[in-house]
Specification:
By secondary structure, the chain is α/β, with parallel strands linked by helices. The chain is built from 20 helices and 19 strands. Helix 1 runs parallel beside helix 6.
């Protein structure tokens, strides 16, 4: 009589086949959260020497760590968690990956169907747990030998949905039901095809708007690629970018607050690509200008909450073309104003200067530009300080600007910097929100610069500040009860330093680059002005430069 594999061995063969196919597709990074029900998948992943494994304790932070690995490698990282609320903890990171178009393989272990609805522990409804936020959700049930022929295609389908083979990239979800005994021995795996499975890849579609001779203002947000910026500049487009953009025109927010400058630089056409910049001033000017706005939908849709896009071009690549050659004198106006602004702010770099939030951001950008260190920005004030008041960024800059939350930012910094290091710039509330990340610091030169301004002072710029009583505003918005970031870091056994001047911050950043592990730098704004007051001074300076630019034309 022919022997029939026992169910646990079938299960082990199933997970071994999935993992083998994912490695064949390009999987390199795996994040494991300890748990029992996930044992079959966890063991198979951990035993594959091709994979870089990180074991992390907190599922929410682990998911953002995996997100960081996906951002850094541009390939899906895989996260595996056990059943129950552990799966629910991944929700925030899945939301970010969805809206930021980050590829991510999410695997949640589950109890078999007979254990649902009967009070079994660690059992919640996990089918379609993440709803429309995932590109593909698979819930194939308990592995059976009769379905073995579908296992590789299941893994491949999930991978290709994540990387965006036929649609924008994003997270995918495999809900994997496992039975006990959880330990089994894989049988011989189904052979792989000689050639990769044909996924009917779309042909490359090159696009360039017909804007020859026009004054073109390009606004590139999250999701724009370095090649997009380079090609736009090659066609004389004046390129403004969000804080993650490379080599774009700086200081545009403050310059555009000047009405005369805004009239001078009114474009003939605006070209949009990717997500949004942080500047509300720019968004307001686009609405005022009433000019055509062309959206370029390349690797992802164009964000357009103001409904200003008048035409959309869809393709796979922006290419340099004669029809795209714009009026170079228009671009020169922008470049001249930005150069004058940078020269004006050179005095902020004095070693003895006291720190403000904007000065901290400028020093962090200087460090990462000069020494080619990846930069990761928090979604609150840091992203705005960098976009509005720092020179152009030269290297890789990342930020969780899909859902714009403060969830898991330190974990994302650790994920991005896990191999070659990174510098993170975040606020103290953001740091505290993800304190559990400090349990599992990477062994890499990672500096986490925490702006220690005692609470959420982004709210100081909102109308609520003037409308509410001081005590009420502090209690409900700024919440000034944040523990010292350096004390929190030391409590987890990490190196921590406190800095109050430009020179001290520079020294701490330089020292962190030579460490083999994480350094938390508590940067204390110590200048005798508030951030609101300093922003006002910066904006007055930029308005004066805007006036000089107008007068010179």
């Amino acid at each position: 009589m022919m022997s029939v594999p026992n169910p646990s061995d079938v299960q082990a063969t199933y997970v071994a086949t999935l993992v083998d196919e994912w490695i064949r597709c390009g999987l390199s990074d795996v994040v494991i959260c300890p748990g029992s029900r996930s044992t079959p998948m966890t063991l198979e992943l951990a035993r594959r020497k091709e994979l870089r494994i990180s074991v992390r304790l907190d599922e929410r932070g682990a998911a953002f760590y995996a997100l960081g690995r996906s951002l850094e490698t541009t390939r899906p990282a895989l996260i595996i968690v056990t059943s129950g609320t552990a799966a629910a903890e991944l929700h925030a990171a899945v939301a970010e990956a969805d809206q930021a178009y980050v590829p991510l393989l999410v695997v949640t272990a589950d109890r078999p169907p007979e254990l649902h609805g009967v009070g079994a522990p660690q059992t919640i409804p996990q089918h379609d747990l993440f709803g429309p936020m995932v590109r593909l959700a698979a819930d194939p049930g308990v592995a059976t030998e009769s379905a073995a022929g579908t296992w590789r295609s299941l893994a491949s389908d999930l991978w290709h949905a994540a990387i965006g083979t036929l649609a924008p990239a994003g997270p995918v979800h495999l809900n994997a039901a496992f039975i006990e005994p959880l330990l089994g021995q894989p049988c011989t795996l189904e052979a792989t095809a000689t050639l990769p499975i044909d996924r009917s890849l779309p042909a490359s579609i090159e696009v360039t708007p017909d804007v020859a001779g026009l004054r073109v203002l390009a606004i590139f947000g999250p999701g724009a690629q370095r090649r997009d910026f380079e090609r736009a500049r090659a066609m004389n487009w004046a390129v403004l970018g969000d804080a993650t953009a490379t080599n774009t025109i700086s200081y545009f927010d403050g310059l555009l607050r000047n009405d005369d400058f805004a009239k001078l630089v009114r474009p003939d056409v605006v070209v949009r690509l990717g997500g949004l910049v942080a500047s509300k001033t720019l968004a307001s000017r686009i609405r005022e200008w009433h000019v055509p706005v062309i959206g370029l939908a390349l690797s992802r849709p164009v964000a357009d909450p103001d409904r200003v896009v008048t035409a959309t071009l869809r393709g796979t690549d922006l290419v340099v073309s004669p029809v795209g050659q714009a009026d170079a004198t228009y671009c020169d106006i922008w470049l001249t104003a930005a150069r004058r602004a940078e020269e004006n702010f050179a005095g902020l770099a004095l070693s003895s200067s006291k720190l403000t939030e904007a000065v901290i951001a400028r020093e962090v950008v200087r460090e990462t530009n000069e020494y080619d260190r990846p930069l990761v920005l928090g979604s609150s004030m840091p992203i705005r300080e960098v976009e509005w008041f720092t020179p152009a960024r030269k290297g890789h800059v990342f930020s969780n600007r899909g859902a714009n939350g403060i969830d898991g930012v330190t974990s994302t910094v650790f994920g991005i910097g896990a191999v070659r290091g990174a510098v993170g710039l975040i606020g103290d509330l953001t740091f505290l929100h993800d304190a559990s990340a400090l349990v599992d610091p990477p062994q890499a030169p990672v500096a986490v610069v925490v702006v220690a301004n005692d609470g959420g002072h982004i709210f100081d710029f909102l109308p609520q500040k003037a409308a509410l009583a001081t005590d009420e505003f502090a209690e409900l918005f700024t919440t000034p009860r944040t523990p010292r970031p350096s004390d929190v870091a030391r409590g987890f056994g990490l190196k921590a330093v406190v800095v109050e001047t430009v020179g001290e911050l520079r020294a701490a950043l330089r020292d962190s680059a030579n460490q083999a592990d994480v350094t938390v730098i508590e940067a204390v704004p110590s200048a005798p002005v508030t951030n609101v007051e300093f922003h006002a001074w910066l904006e007055r300076s930029l308005s004066r430069i805007a006036n000089e630019t107008v007068q010179s034309q």
